[in-house]
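Q: Predict the assembly, please.
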Amino acid sequence: MMSRTLMVLWLGLVLTTPAEARTLAEIEARGELRVCFSAIEPALVRVEPEGCTVNCQYAGLLVDQVALFADTLNGISVVPKSVSWSDQFSDETGQVQREESYLPELLASGACDLLVSNLARLPWRLRKMDIVPLFESRMIAIVRADRQSEFTTLDSFAGKSAVVSLESSFHTWLLERNMEEFTGNPVEVVPLDGRVALDLVFQNKVDFTLTDADIAVLSIPAYGADLVPAFAVGPVQELGWGVDPADQELRAAIEMFFADQKPDPRSALNRAWQQHLGVTIPEFEALVNALPGTQAADGSGKNGD
Amino acid sequence: MATKGNGLAAFSRSLRVKLIIWTCVILAVVVVGLTTLIARNASRLLETQTAAQLTQLTAQSARAVSDFIEARERTVDLWAVDSLMLSVARDPGLRAVFLPGLSGYLSSYAEREPWIADILLVENRLPIFSLSGRENVIADPKALFTLTDTASKAQRLVRVVGQEHAHLAIRRQASDRGQLLDGVFVILLLDPKVIQAELLSDTSPSSSGFVALLSDRGQPLVELPVALGELPEPKAAMDVVSNDDYLIERHVVSDSPIYVMGVAARSDIEAPVNRLIYFSVLLGLAAILTGLGGTLYFTGRVTAPIRKLTDDARAITDLRFGGKLLRKLREDLPHQDEVSELAAVFDLLDRTTEELTEANSLLETRNADLDETRRSLRTNLDRLELEMDAARRLQLSMVAPDRVLRKLTPSVHAVGLMEPAREVGGDFYDSFLLDVDTVVFFIGDVSDKGTASALLMSRTVSLVRFAAQQFVELRKCVPQPSDVLAQVNAELCKSNSTRMFVTLYLGILNTNTGAVSYCNAGHISPIVCTDNGVRQTSQDIPDLPLGVQAGASYDTHTTQLQAGDRLVLYTDGVTEAEDEGRTFFGVDRLMEVLSSARSTDMPTMIKSVRQQLSVFVGDAEQFDDITLLIIGWEPMG
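A: Predicted assembly structure:
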């Protein structure tokens, strides 16, 4: 299933013509599900060949998950699309207006039925879309191993430089910290695509980066022992897929899919997780919640405030 | 010093002191004996009980430790298949990100279980995770891999702070869905000290005892609170290796190479016994003091009467037998106390009483004899009285009839009265016709009274009659009174061994002329009653009484009676008769009576004298014979 799904060649851009947001019925009627990925982390989603925009091959955990979901919708095909991270929240003018409520252009235009890049359920995002939660994760600070001793507590960030994806939850969290704890000595935030964030840290061009635990698990081994997790920061966050709030049927279908798959360690979804991350979703959440500094798991410390 | 010695002696003899001392001694012996008996039995019982409790406690502790280890083994079993552990073990990325999470996950567990020294995740004999974070926790990692997969084992794994410290290691090989992962192990290191402190610290068979964990070689896994010396290696699942100071039992922890050793200090067993002894001794002392007080009180009450009795007995003994006997009695006492002394006194009194009884018996015998004698005397007295009465009558018969006028001649009349003071008297009188013209009359008084006097009186009367009559026969003439008295005196003096004497007035009356010749041998001169009155005859000095001096001479005197004169002769019993006021009747009172009665006939005169005499004497006792003789001369024509 996974290999088949991974190696599917998509002709999404050719077959689809953006117009307006679609309902599940229209999706099923058309027999295709338009899914947008933000390939900030190759371990989650890889687009091959690199830099490809047409006739690309998509692979990775996110791709496999979507394929599994698509299978539950009477075998409709998945039409993948690679987007930048910030585009997922941009309005029709291409701007991200955090305080405004609107349907992001990718959803509103019908270019994407789903935003599956593990979106954290941040308040400003929820003013723009529904994010159906799939799993819990935390932000992990990644530093160079030889500088690990510099990063022992949250205060260690003050005055340091950090590279994060623009409009990401990491970006949001650092901005909030600069507004509060680090007002006098803020973190120098460098918003860049995640793909290069770890490289910049590795190259010691920035002091640290923040990423989700799942991404960290998948990314760090590539750097051997040079990059290490310093510690987890922020609350436990719920991550999931973004959908048009108006499309409740699609949302319900996704929720049903998650509810069926997540608790069962032998489900296809959990097997996909084990394949990519080595653990099932519940196991991953257990690991996340076992991280030091984890706030209460009753939701009070979780995203959504 | 002597007083002090006596005081000590009295103290040592005191029954009260002995009672008190013996009471204290008995109480002390009873208390010590009972205490010893109770302490010995209590000690045995406590040791038996403690040994049983130790066995039970040690077995329970072994089971508890076994259950404890088994529970930890189950935990390690879970960890060995726990996805989190496996993920960290297998995936470098997960390990990199979630190793702190694993630490937190296990720390939360370890916080609840303080006996966890470390939790290790080992891959290919290298630790990839250590909860403690100490690299030197495992000084000998190879030892961990010699453990069997299913058993725990006590091993000396590491030295901490320069001090040997063994851990209990439980190792399980990780497995993923039933598939063992090569070279991946989860190892739980338990700290025996904490296990002991948390699990067994409240488990102690005695206050100084303890329960400790041992290795399978009998080596303590924790530092023992006391030195037990070198203990042998356990050879059985349960053994007892007690020594002089401790009861020691060792029980193997089921299916594990460790033992639980229960230790009970013998001093703890002895402690309650010692407390019991102390308490008993205190109780004993209290009992002795109470007994002493009670004994003082009761012995005071009991012995006070005994002491009083003893003092009284001592006083009686002292009074009756003297102090010397009392001291001798005390010296011979078998026990020097009041009771012994009292008993001795009673014994002495008993013996004395027996002697008195014997004396009484003898006295009764004597009394019986005396009664017999008295009865015999009474018989004899009665007989004597009869004889005396006969003698009286005989004596009276020897004189003229009492108060009866006798006409000796027609011109001479006589009347007499004799009342002896006793049965027989010493007075006498007589008158007889010597020849036709001569009347002899006399009155006498024998010294003393009674039978001897009576006999002498009768003899004298006979001698006077005999002398007068013999003189007449021999001389053929009337004798002079002095002749008669001389002869009578001579006779009386011959055999007068009793030195008795006789006063006697002897007159010889010529019946024709009224001439009277007379001799007075120590007697009272008579009184003459005439028509003209009453007068005493001659106041001549009397001669010696008869029987006083042999050869004594007696003078004859003469006097002349007138017709109608009456010559009244009497003894001193008349004039010396006493009334109750011890006043003599006297010559004057006699002369008054005679004077008053001189006109009466002679018997009446003599009755009057006797009556007046009786009136005068009253109830006073008659001491002397009363004798009167009246001779009246009334010539014819």
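The longest helix of chain B spans residues 15-80. The first strand of chain B starts at residue 116 and ends at 123.
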